[in-house]
Amino acid sequence: MHQILLVDDEPYVVDDLSISLPWAEMGFEQVHKAYSGYEALELLQRYPIDIVVTDINMPEISGIELIASIRSRWKHIRVVMLTGYAEFEYARKAIEEQASAYLLKPIANNQLIDVIVKLQEELRSEWETWSSYQRTMQTFREHLPLLRDRLLSELLQGRKLSVQQLQERLAQFDLPLQADLPVCLAVVRPEEFFRRQDMRSMLLFEYAIINIAQELFQDHFHIWSCKDVHDYLIFLLQPRDDIEPSGNPGNDVAQAAYQLQNHVSTLIGGGLSVVTTGWGEFPDQVYSLYQSAITAIRQHIGSETGIYLDVTDTSSSQPVEILQPLYEPPLLFHMFEANNWQGIEDKLNAITSELGRNPDRSLEHIHEARLHLETAFYYFAHKNNKMLSEIVGNPLLEQAPFQTPDKLREWALEVIVLLREHFESERLNSRTVLIQNVHEYINSNLHYVSLQAIADHVQMHPVYLSKMYKLETGKRISDYISQVKMEKAAYLLIHTPLKIYEVSTELGYSNAHYFIKLFKEYAGMTPQEFRDRAL
From start to end of 290-445, where are the E strands? Predict the structure, then answer.
């Protein structure tokens, strides 16, 4: 229900409008009356008014001044201006002040009703849009922690984002970090006490640990956290630019990490092991920082508990680099499942380019890439109930180890092409079989056939079946049914003594007149004329 305000310095105009229109039937729960601009502003402050109908020429506060006040304070209100012919040029200013509509006096009731009904529809549409937006934003806010967690998890796994893409996501997720500024990681491994907890209790403990970490780190760092695939809590830290630097940010990280261990032990009773990393560019080096922390936990902490380890100084070590394109998302397995053949080829190119870019890559890296690719090939074939050897042949699978990235790419691309051709052909064949099944069912059930019955027979959703049929044949299923029915009708009319209504019933038409109409559209003549001509 809406509320309307009628404004004019001539009382009889307002009073007449208030009683001459069926306001209640139009959906107005209250009609307010004002005899001056000041009185109108007072009522606007007291009531949730949706539409104002006001004269343009009033003393003290004119209609244009009233509109300006409304627009500055109640932007949702619609305003209808009333003006005489002599004031038309003056009324242009009302339009410039964003009046919703203006009407020339004298006003016909039906004219005013039409304008107001239109404004009511605008209001309803606007509030529905706003309500939908509000619901969307509420849902977004409710899922914001999960979205933040997922984005950081993807960066830890090696996902590549441009600076612009990342900055847009950070702004969208309300994260005050800056791309290209240094970050470090604090990786927290909950110990035995926490691993004994049930899932609900563990979620509460993790929430408590994250809150304690926020308190400890927030004075010096912007902090972004998530839970990784190992059930470790990961904290990405970036020095705040809105405070004076304390000197060595690494010392601040180490001090807060020690305090985190002590606070969690004292307040919760469980132990933590914490690994902090050196500094790297954000986001490009997040993956390598994370890998250094995970490696340190595996190599230097193992099953020990309550350990704090700083892996800042890695200059003396010469680790064996991993072949990152193999393991960064999207993975080959996922792209095979999605039939993303272009993505698969791009992934292969990225792997072999990385192998060729670094001359220090060993033959072992090439062998690793081959094993990974083979595993993806076997996975895809077996998941589709096929043996890989039947598709690509044993000679291709049994080739000797490759010595160069180019040979690896040549071999893998040949396998990929064979897989794609096989499953594309199989998909097309399966569609051919589907169309045959549909036609056979229709031909056997002309007396009673429907899209739902056909869909049930081939075990598909009717909408999907319709799309598939149109894609393969260029026709609708209903067109094929009509064609087959008319062809069958023509045969029955010539080769059987069945009467016209009996032919109609035989084909599933309950109304013979409707059957005659359809047959005439098909053959250009009535069924009887068709029969007579054939005799």
Answer: 308-311
Please state which of the ranges 295-299, 315-319, 507-511, 517-521 shows the lowest mean pLDDT: 315-319
What is the percent of the chain where pLDDT is above 70? 94
Q: What angle do CA 451, 454, 456 make, to 5 degrees?
A: 110
Residue 349: CB atoms within 10 Å: 13
Helix 405-444 with 451-458: angle, nearest 10 deg: 130
Rounded CA separation 377/344 (Å): 11
Task: Check pLDDT > 60 for residue 404.
Answer: yes
The C-alpha atoms of residue 101 and residue 514 are separated, in whole angstroms, by 52
- Closest CA relative to residue 6, chosen from 23, 41, 31, 30: 31
Comparing CA positions, the residue from 225, 204, 211, 210 lying closest to residue 153 is 225
At 471-486, the pLDDT tens digits run 888 888 888 888 999 9
CB neighbours (10 Å) of residue 211? 10
Question: What are 368's two structure tokens?
Answer: 């690793």
Six-digit token string for 184: 């470090």
Compute φ and ψ for 275, nearest 5 degrees.
-120, 125
Q: Which residues contact 465 (CB under 8 A, 6 or more apart)?
A: 438, 451, 454, 455, 458, 477
Of 184-188, 191-195, 316-320, minimum mean pLDDT range: 316-320
Taking residues 420-448, report their average pLDDT: 87
Q: Kindly state the greatest CA–CA separation across the chain.
A: 107
Q: Which residues pair with 277 in a beta bridge?
A: 311
Kindly report the number of other CB atoms within 10 A of residue 207's CB atom: 11
Between helix 451-458 and helix 462-473 the angle, nearest 10°, is 90
Q: Assess whether pLDDT exceeds 80 at residue 249.
A: yes
Distance CA 393, CA 422 (A): 12
Lookup: tokens for 164: 């612009």
Residues found in the chain? 535
Specify the DSSP class assigned to residue 321.
Answer: P
Crossing angle of the two packed helices 341-357 and 363-383, in degrees rounded to 10: 170
Q: Exposure of 386 by Cβ count < 10 A (0-12 exposed, 13-18 middle, 19+ buried)?
A: middle
CB 516 within 8 A of CB 527: yes
Q: Supply the pLDDT for residue 529.
A: 92
d(CA 391, CA 386): 8
Distance from C-alpha of 74 to C-alpha of 535, rounded to nearest angstrom:
82
d(CA 18, CA 494): 76
CB atoms near residue 384 (< 10 Å):
13
In this structure, is the dihedral angle defined by the CA atoms of residues 527, 529, 534 and 535, taken in order, positive or negative?
positive
Asked if residue 234 lies in contact with residue 223, where contact means CB atoms within 8 angstroms, the answer is: no
β-pair type (272-277, 308-311): parallel
| Per-residue pLDDT reduced to its tens digit, 102-123 | 777 777 888 889 899 999 888 8
